[in-house]
């Protein structure tokens, strides 16, 4: 059974209203722009988006925000998009702010089957409010629960036809950990090669984590987001 998907509509078949969706990327770097574009064209609402940020104004997840399809955002760098703050002030979106390392570790824990963990990050700040505290070796820690999602939309550089993934430099960012922490994982890639062509040493995400592969039709260049292929 092939994992190759013909278009964004097929890739997002499993997405439904009310879903929690992880989206890779740091800003627009390493973001699955083709899949995000398909999501903006799908008739779904009340989404919880777990991502480092919610795109930029009118770009990436910023388009989805403008459509008022996002009920809640969980991330660490919402100020990359001024529209997020404005929507929050109007009461149109709920936000959960997590330090960047906490966001990454919570997703990793979700993928590893760990229920949560204790961290010193955030202790004594507003981010620690209503969170369990525990003293360990004389220092205060707060408990952070693991994070999982219904769907993960991620971006990789190359895939083979089985779904083994290779990433490109910093575009890797949150994508590998997100691939482990969702019920359904769809990977958008620049290139698809035959099984066996990728070096096992280069593979970061094994194919067992990946449910579908889509060839990217939108890429990020120095000139901005452009149509590709």
From TrEMBL:
InterPro entries: 3-oxoacid_CoA-transf_A (IPR012792), CoA_trans_fam_I (IPR004165), NagB/RpiA_transferase-like (IPR037171). Keywords: Transferase. The keyword Ribonucleoprotein does not apply. Pfam families: CoA_trans. GO terms for molecular function: CoA-transferase activity. The keyword Transferase applies. Transmembrane segments: none annotated. This is 3-oxoacid CoA-transferase subunit A.
């Amino acid at each position: 059974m092939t994992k190759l998907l013909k278009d964004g509509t097929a890739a997002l078949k499993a997405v439904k209203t009310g879903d929690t969706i992880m989206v890779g990327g740091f800003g627009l770097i390493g973001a699955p722009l083709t899949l995000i574009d398909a999501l903006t064209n799908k008739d779904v609402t009340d989404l919880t988006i777990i991502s480092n940020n919610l795109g930029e104004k009118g770009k990436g997840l910023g388009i989805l925000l403008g459509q008022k399809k996002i009920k809640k955002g969980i991330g660490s760098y919402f100020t990359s998009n001024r529209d997020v703050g404005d929507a929050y002030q109007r009461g149109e979106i709920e936000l959960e702010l997590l330090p960047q390392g906490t966001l990454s570790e919570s997703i990793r824990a979700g993928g590893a089957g760990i229920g949560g963990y204790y961290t010193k990050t955030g202790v004594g700040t507003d981010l620690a409010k209503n969170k369990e505290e525990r003293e360990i070796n004389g220092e205060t820690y707060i408990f952070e629960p693991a994070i999982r999602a219904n769907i993960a939309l991620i971006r990789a550089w190359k895939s083979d036809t089985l779904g083994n993934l290779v990433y490109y430099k910093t575009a890797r960012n949150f994508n590998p950990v997100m691939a482990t922490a969702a019920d359904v994982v769809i990977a958008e890639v620049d290139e698809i090669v035959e099984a066996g062509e990728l070096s096992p040493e280069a593979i970061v995400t094994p194919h067992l984590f990946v449910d579908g592969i889509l060839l990217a039709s939108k890429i990020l260049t120095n000139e901005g987001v452009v149509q590709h292929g």
